[in-house]
Amino acid sequence: MIYMGFRVGEVLLLEVDSIHLEEGYIIGGEKTEAGKDRTVPFPESIPEIKQFVENWVRKAAPGGKLFSMTYQTFRVTHYYAPLMELGIVDGYIENGKTVFNTPHHITPHSTRHTFATLSAEAGMKPKELQKIIGHAKIQTTLDIYTHTNADALQSEMNKLTRA
Questions:
Q1: Pairing label, strands 97-101, 90-94
Q2: What is the average pLDDT value for the chain, to the nearest integer?
Q3: What b/e string do you get for 99-120 counting C-beta neighbours within 10 Å, with b at 16 or more?
Q4: What whole-number distance in Å separates Cα of residue 130 and Cα of residue 154?
Q5: pTM to 2 decimal places
Q6: Does the pLDDT of residue 48 top 90, yes or no?
Q7: Beta bridge partners of 15
């Protein structure tokens, strides 16, 4: 989700037939008119993303959903568990279940913000980013979804010279 910009609900609704591996894109999306059925190309510079999706396509039933799991299962097994392995979130076992201690700002939806920020930092044109992420208004993408870090601010300030 970090490299494609889909919402978690959109990922869970993806159908195998919406994955166009040979052509290099996915058609998906929901929620708003601008977000529905949008074309999201695989980033050619990160071939692992396409390979990851291809592996899931092989596991899925032809003509079915790419992922056959609930939102809760996805959150636990495919989001928080890997973050715990990476040391990003903490967790513990209680009554045979993993309980995650996560900061409130680390949610599956955070990946859309990360996607928008990484895309903007990489120089993606704002209008194209808006279309890929599926926002009706560019201001939503720029004001809410892209975040500037201190290093980026310093880099911009370093462009100043004495008059």
A1: antiparallel
A2: 87
A3: ebebeeeeebeebbbbbbbebb
A4: 26
A5: 0.80
A6: yes
A7: 65
Q: Output phi, psi for 121, to 5 deg.
A: -65, -30
Report the alpha-carbon distance of residue 71 to residue 57 in Å, rounded: 19
Task: Map residue 162 onto helix, strand or coil.
Answer: coil
Phi/psi at 67 (nearest 5 deg)? Answer: -120, 125
Quote the CA–CA distance of 13 and 15 in Å, as a whole number: 6
Helices (H) and strands (E) in the chain, counts: 8, 5
Query: Tokens 């059925």 correspond to what residue?
Result: 37
Tokens describing residue 109 = 């939806």
The pLDDT tens digits for 126-163 are 999 999 998 888 888 877 788 877 877 787 778 887 77
Q: 46 and 60 in contact (C-beta within 8 Å)?
A: no
